[in-house]
Structure formats: structure tokens, C-alpha cells
């Protein structure tokens, strides 16, 4: 056990001068990062957002029905509106997609070890996955393996899942005509090769376009603040941040985990506007975490790259991967992601 | 053949692994194919070595031939040595002189022999205009020690030279002189990692003084040599939140913030060393990090006193 008196560690310069330097940005690198950050916040993204609440709509959704969406890692994509897509053609789409996959696999593309051609594609609607009534219905595509033995369950194992949704997509919905269906957020779980095949079919059939949805450090910070702001009865996971340090020649990863109750206490101390999260509050929340870290280690985390944030509500990675842990705030998390997807499309 | 030379041959050949024996002897090119065929390479190593030494004696091999064999062996085992790199900097107005390898070797040998009474200098050309120089040092009154030679590998079309030997450090200035005299360039300078000399006078360094201070402090803490290899450090923090600038945040809270910080990297200490010079951390770095090698710990629990 190692004792260390933090107070005695302050260098010759006074503590307040240190923090002032830190905020202004002494090094050229920090200065650049500050300006980039300000730039991102100026374009498009709102200076305030509503804290995710557990809406009435959400209460109606059967938690069991959406349980399969939780605790899974989803890779995110933005999707442009689908042309002449119809919810009543699901059976037809299943057949066509099934045939397409079989053809692709026989072509020798996307060969997987242990793959059998006995697969089944199912389209289904995901009820209740919307923000307002105007949002189109979310739907699900699944690839299941058809089991060989008759004694086994007919349905077989789920090999791949992809779902399309739109949560509070008002800004996009207003811009498109009747022929288009707007489901800008696409989430996929399963082999990358399957995602590619399914994506190709959708792009060909509905004249749409998938793009991987990355989440930059700015939005990760927002997510961390918003999810910390959510009221939780009990915490299931620690609040954790992961930074990647751009030093050469060796890479360095810094993981900073804080007890969720302490993170909440810090947030409550920062938070001023009820029901809303503002840019200033997000900045202050992150700055507090940075300065606590700096006090101990003399490292400026703001000069490094935030790569992952994880809370009891959800975990997000900068490469565009998300894991949702709490069904209560599922809609809230999806709303933010829809916003990012719409921003990428427009 | 001199006793000592025979012994030198014996020991040098004995060093060579059996699997490489034929390859190295062929590369050495002193014993002919026919002669090598008369030797039984399947016998025990000691006997094989005896036979080979006899062959060398018959062919009147000299000390220099033995030194050449030593060079060949070292060329095959260069990865087992630690090499220092030196860069020669040209004086103002210097352009590429026409390089004469033979002249270089002659003057190199002459200079060393003039300066030191007892020295063995041998050369062997290698790929890409490189020359391997083997130097065995003696003293005023003692013959050169053939078992602790120094090697210098000089790539003639470049300003770089590689050296290997612990004994070399004291003789470095002399070596530098030999290069200088031949090339008429400014003396060898150890390649400095740090602030670059300005190539273009229009490019200036901001915060030059601060940069130099950071370099100096970092060097004082971490030293010049490679850091011990470490991949992981973990800190359990239970300290109160204190912030003068963010006035009042958590001011009333008695309980500390419970944090767990983990650093991971393929080479953690080298990465930490590079943080201050990169502007990502302050110099001096926190004692929490710099104490790792001294304390020999990488798991810490930190509390307010």
C-alpha cells in the first residue's frame, strides 16, 4: 500500500497558475485541439440536449421483447432513405435476400469456415422503437441457421442480426418525399462478411447507401455526461473512460474508471439546468475529470484521444460500436445515435 | 607458426557453431576446396578444430588471416553485438569527396599504428560499400589482446559509422581523429536525439528555452539508457476532488473520489518518457509514475494523507 500526499505534490508554480495554463493550452498541440473542439461544437450540433427520460412509450415496450438488443455489441452505420420500401413485402424480401446470400456464398465470396448454406433470413417489425409517432417503424433482419436435425428447435441459431430504426428523426423526415422511408440508424451484430452481403443487397434493392458511423471524442464526452445524468436505481457497471495517447514510438492507453456514485456526485455538482444538459456543463464535467487526473499524474488528458466511454446506461467506442446496458434508456441512447446518423447523411 | 597465433586460430574456429562451420570457412576463403575436402567434418568438434589448425599451419597462415576469420565470424553474428551509431557532420562548404577505399584503409591503419604502439588493424570489405575494421588493442608494453577486439563498420557513401566494443569508449577520440584526418570533416559526433539543428533559418523554435528545460528534466529523471521493459501500471485512487479554478465543485463533499487508473503500453516507461517532450504532460512528470523503476512496483493505492 502506497501513501501519497497529493497536496505536497504541487510544483513550484502555484496550483492556480497550473490550471490556468492548462485551460489556455500552453503547447501548440493543445491549442490546436481546443480550436478543433470549438469548431465541431459550432457546426450543427445543438448547445443543449434533453436528458434521456424514461418516456411513456418506453414503458409500454415489453422489456423481454427488447432484451436481445441489450448487452450486445452493435456496429453502427448511417443509412440514407430507402426508396420504395414497403413493410408489407417482408416475405418477398426474405426470399430475395435468402437467394442473394446463397448466390454470393456460392460465388466464393465471403466464405466462412463451418458455414452451411442452410440459412434462413427473417424480416420482422420492431414495435415501439420510435421517438414520436412520425418516426417510421423499426425493423429487424436476422440470419438464422437451419438446424440439420429434425429433433432440434425449428428456428435454429441466430447468426447475424441487423436492425434499422429512426428515433426523433424529424429533421430528416421533413426533407424527403413519400416514396422514401427514413431509417437512418443501422446497427449490426455478427460476422462482418454477413453485414457486407446484406448491405450490398439493400443498396442494390432500395438505392440507399450505408456508411460506418464513427463517434468522435466530442460526442463521446456528451454521451458520458448525458448517461451519467440519467437517474439509475442501481448501478451495474463502473463509469470508465479510455484514452489513446498519440506518443511515438510506443502506443499508450490510459483507462480511467470512477465509481458511478462518485461520477454522479460530480455531475450533480456541475449540473445547473433541470432536465437539460448544456455544452458548458459537459465541458465542465470533463474538465473536472481531466484536472483530477492531472493533479495526480501531471498528464493532460485533453491532449490525447478519447476512444471509449462506458457507463451503466451504455458503452460507446469511437470506431462506431455501441453496447446498451439499460432498457430504460434504450430510446434515449438511440435518439442520440440517430442524431449523429442524420448529421452524417445530410 | 607462433604459439599464440595457433591458439588464436584454435579458439576462433572453436567459437563457430558446427552448423555454420562450412559456410564460414568458405566465406573466409583461405583454405581451398581441396584442402577442406581432406578434413572429416563429422568427427568430434575438438578433433575437427585440431585438423583445421594443422591445415592453417601448413599453409603458413598469419595473424592477419586469423583476424580476417574473426571478422567473418562476427559478420555472421553481428546481431549478437550491441552497436553504437555515429554520424559525421561535414564542415561548411564540404561536398562529397571522391572516396578511395584503399587510400582510406591505408591512412586509417597508419594513423592508428602511429598513435598506438601495439595494435592489430584488419579490414574486410562487405556489401554496399561498407568496410569492416577489426582493431585489437594493446598497450605500450603489451601485445594486442586478440580476444577483445573492437569493430568499426563504415559505410563509405554515407556519413555513418557503427562501432562495437566496451573498450572503445576510451579510444573514441582517437578513432574520431582517424576519420577526421582522412575525410577532412568535422569530428565524429554522437547522433543526438533531441533538438534538431536548424536546417532553414526561417524555421525557428518557439518556446526554445522551455523545450530545452523539458528535455533536461526528462533526461534527469529517466536517464539516457533504455527503460526497463514494463507493460502495465495500475493506480487505485481514493482522494478528494480539489479544484481551485472550478470553484465550489464538490466543495462540501467529504468522501473521496474512488478511481482506478490503468496505464498500458508495449513499452510503458518509454511511452511515459516521451510524454513531456511531446507536450502531453508537464515536466517533471508526476512522482507517482517516475517512482516505478525505483520502487519496483506497478500497483499502487493512493490516499489523501
UniProtKB/TrEMBL annotation, chain A:
Give the record's keywords alphabetically.
Centromere, Chromosome, Nucleus
Q: Where in the cell is it found?
A: Chromosome, Centromere; Nucleus
Q: Does the keyword Nuclease apply?
A: no
Task: Tell whether Protein biosynthesis is among the UniProt keywords.
Answer: no
Q: Extract the InterPro entries matched here.
A: CENP-L
Instruction: Kindly list the GO CC terms recorded for this protein.
Output: inner kinetochore; nucleus
* Domain of life according to the entry: Eukaryota
Question: Looking at the Swiss-Prot or TrEMBL record, what is one Pfam family this protein matches?
Answer: CENP-L
Similarity comment text for this entry: Belongs to the CENP-L/IML3 family.
Record's protein name: Centromere protein L
Query: Native species of this protein?
Result: Catagonus wagneri
Automatic annotation (TrEMBL), chain B:
Keyword Calcium in annotation? no
Where, per UniProt, does this protein localize?
A: Chromosome, Centromere; Nucleus
Instruction: Alphabetically list the UniProt keywords.
Output: Centromere, Chromosome, Nucleus
Q: Does the keyword Nucleus apply?
A: yes
Chief location of this protein? Answer: nucleus
Pfam families tied to this protein: CENP-N
The GO annotation for biological process reads: CENP-A containing chromatin assembly; chromosome segregation
Example of a GO cellular component annotation carried by this entry: nucleoplasm
The record ties this protein, via InterPro entries, to:
CENP-NAC/CAD_complex, Chl4/mis15/CENP-N
Domain of life, source organism: Eukaryota
Protein family: Belongs to the CENP-N/CHL4 family.
**Name listed for the protein in its UniProt record:** Centromere protein N
Q: What are the leading ranks of the lineage? A: Eukaryota, Metazoa, Chordata, Craniata, Vertebrata
List the gene name. Answer: CENPN
Amino acid at each position: 500500500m502506497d501513501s501519497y500526499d497529493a497536496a505536497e505534490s504541487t510544483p513550484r508554480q502555484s496550483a492556480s497558475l497550473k490550471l490556468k495554463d492548462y485551460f489556455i493550452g500552453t503547447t501548440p498541440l493543445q491549442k490546436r485541439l481546443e480550436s478543433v473542439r470549438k469548431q465541431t461544437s459550432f457546426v450543427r450540433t445543438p448547445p443543449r440536449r434533453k436528458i434521456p427520460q424514461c418516456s411513456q412509450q418506453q414503458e409500454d415496450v415489453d422489456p423481454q421483447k427488447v432484451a436481445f438488443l441489450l448487452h450486445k455489441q452493435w456496429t453502427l452505420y448511417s443509412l440514407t432513405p430507402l426508396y420504395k420500401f414497403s413493410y408489407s413485402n417482408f416475405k418477398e424480401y426474405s426470399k430475395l435476400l435468402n437467394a442473394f446470400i446463397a448466390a454470393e456464398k456460392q460465388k466464393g465470396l465471403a466464405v466462412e469456415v463451418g458455414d452451411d448454406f442452410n440459412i434462413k433470413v427473417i424480416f420482422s417489425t420492431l414495435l415501439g422503437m420510435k421517438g414520436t409517432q412520425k418516426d417510421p417503424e423499426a425493423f429487424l433482419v436476422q440470419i438464422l441457421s437451419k438446424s440439420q436435425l429434425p429433433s432440434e428447435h425449428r428456428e435454429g441459431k441466430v447468426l447475424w442480426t441487423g436492425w434499422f430504426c429512426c428515433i426523433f428523426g424529424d429533421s430528416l423526415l421533413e426533407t424527403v418525399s413519400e416514396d422514401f422511408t427514413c431509417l437512418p440508424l443501422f446497427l449490426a451484430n455478427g460476422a462482418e462478411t454477413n453485414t457486407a452481403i446484406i448491405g450490398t443487397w439493400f443498396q442494390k434493392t432500395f438505392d440507399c447507401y450505408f456508411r460506418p458511423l464513427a463517434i468522435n471524442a466530442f460526442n463521446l464526452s456528451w454521451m458520458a455526461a448525458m448517461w451519467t445524468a440519467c437517474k439509475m436505481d442501481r448501478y451495474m457497471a463502473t463509469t470508465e473512460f479510455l484514452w489513446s495517447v498519440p506518443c511515438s514510438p510506443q502506443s499508450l492507453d490510459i483507462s480511467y474508471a470512477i465509481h458511478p456514485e462518485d461520477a454522479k456526485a460530480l455531475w450533480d455538482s456541475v449540473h445547473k439546468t433541470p432536465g437539460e444538459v448544456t455544452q458548458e456543463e459537459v465541458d465542465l464535467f470533463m474538465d473536472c475529470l481531466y484536472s483530477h487526473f492531472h493533479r495526480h499524474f501531471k498528464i493532460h488528458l485533453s491532449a490525447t484521444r478519447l476512444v471509449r466511454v462506458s457507463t451503466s446506461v451504455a458503452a460507446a467506442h469511437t470506431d462506431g460500436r455501441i453496447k446498451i446496458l439499460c432498457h430504460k434508456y434504450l430510446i434515449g441512447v438511440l435518439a442520440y445515435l440517430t442524431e449523429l446518423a442524420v448529421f452524417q447523411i445530410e | 607458426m607462433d604459439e599464440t597465433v595457433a591458439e588464436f586460430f584454435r579458439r576462433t574456429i572453436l567459437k563457430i557453431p558446427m552448423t555454420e562451420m562450412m559456410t564460414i570457412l568458405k566465406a573466409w576463403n583461405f583454405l581451398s576446396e581441396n584442402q577442406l575436402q581432406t578434413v572429416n567434418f563429422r568427427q568430434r568438434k575438438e578433433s575437427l578444430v585440431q585438423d583445421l589448425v594443422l591445415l592453417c599451419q601448413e599453409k603458413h597462415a598469419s595473424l592477419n588471416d586469423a583476424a580476417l576469420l574473426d571478422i567473418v565470424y562476427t559478420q555472421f553474428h553481428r546481431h549478437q553485438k550491441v552497436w553504437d551509431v555515429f554520424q559525421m557532420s561535414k564542415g561548411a562548404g564540404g561536398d562529397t569527396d571522391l572516396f578511395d577505399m584503399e587510400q582510406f584503409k591505408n591512412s586509417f591503419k597508419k594513423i592508428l599504428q602511429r598513435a598506438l604502439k601495439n595494435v592489430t588493424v584488419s579490414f574486410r570489405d562487405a556489401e554496399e560499400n561498407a568496410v569492416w575494421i577489426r582493431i585489437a588493442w594493446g598497450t605500450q608494453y603489451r601485445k594486442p589482446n586478440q580476444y577483445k577486439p573492437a569493430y568499426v563498420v563504415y559505410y563509405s557513401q554515407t556519413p555513418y559509422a557503427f562501432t562495437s566494443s566496451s573498450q572503445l569508449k576510451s579510444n573514441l577520440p582517437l578513432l574520431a581523429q582517424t576519420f577526421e584526418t582522412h575525410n577532412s570533416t568535422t569530428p565524429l559526433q554522437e547522433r543526438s536525439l533531441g533538438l534538431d539543428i536548424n536546417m532553414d533559418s526561417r524555421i525557428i523554435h518557439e518556446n526554445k528555452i522551455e523545450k530545452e528545460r523539458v528535455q533536461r528534466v526528462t533526461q534527469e529523471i529517466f536517464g539516457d539508457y533504455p527503460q526497463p521493459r514494463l507493460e502495465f501500471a495500475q493506480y487505485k485512487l481514493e482522494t478528494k476532488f480539489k479544484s481551485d479554478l472550478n470553484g465550489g465543485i464538490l466543495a462540501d463533499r467529504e468522501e473521496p473520489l474512488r478511481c482506478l487508473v490503468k496505464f498500458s503500453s508495449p513499452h510503458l516507461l518509454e511511452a511515459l518518457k516521451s510524454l513531456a517532450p511531446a507536450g502531453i504532460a508537464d515536466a517533471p512528470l508526476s512522482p507517482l509514475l517516475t517512482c516505478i523503476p525505483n520502487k519496483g512496483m506497478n500497483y499502487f493505492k493512493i490516499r489523501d494523507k
